[in-house]
Amino acid sequence: MAPLDDHVGRSAYYAGDLDRKVTWICSKLVKNGDTVLDVGANLGLVTMWLSFLAGSKGAVHAFEPNFDRQDILEQVIKRNCLSNVCLHPIGLGERESVHILRVPARNMGMGTLNWNKDLGIDQIREYRVRVRPLSRILEQESITKIRLMKLDVEGFELNVLKGAETYLRNHQIDAILFELNDPSNSFYQEEIIKYLDSLDYGFFSTPKCLVKMGLK
User: Fold this and answer.
1) What is the pLDDT of residues 198-212, one digit of tens each?
2) Which of 70, 137, 149, 199 would suit a FRET pair with 62, their CA atoms being 20 to 30 Å apart?
């Protein structure tokens, strides 16, 4: 199930986790019966953890545009009997469109719809993928209460959030978990913070640690 020629696959196989900070935060926030979103589900490591936390009365909506990852995700959901998980094989953005997904061959977790993101010298695979605004999907699914959205889309976060603006202005998500760890892209990161601030969100950071997890 876990491809060993890929960074995320090796992490799943040898450690059973990719980022302990993410799973720790999920465990603190998500309870039985919650509805949660995993945007950028990849191999499904966080999806499985969210499925366990949300329980039989909850729901996990996992979004993954990478065709290669979708096949693995479908197997993960089936083999682990994750009956509360709904897989959406699409990307999320501001509007209905078709985008090019760029994916480094040796680290598919870095796949992005953002053409301005530097992916280094690794071999790049390209896929044409369908992109939809999140607000439209949530309306179709009749979802009005979301406990957590995990957002891992490698530089496309603002596009995803703007595609959810209609929903966010009427039904604020309790918590949005995303990465801001690229010092070369500080302007873009400031735009995300300004945008969420305009929607009345507050902010916590999760610093790197060796022993004890915490927020600040």
Assistant:
1) 999 999 887 665 545
2) 199
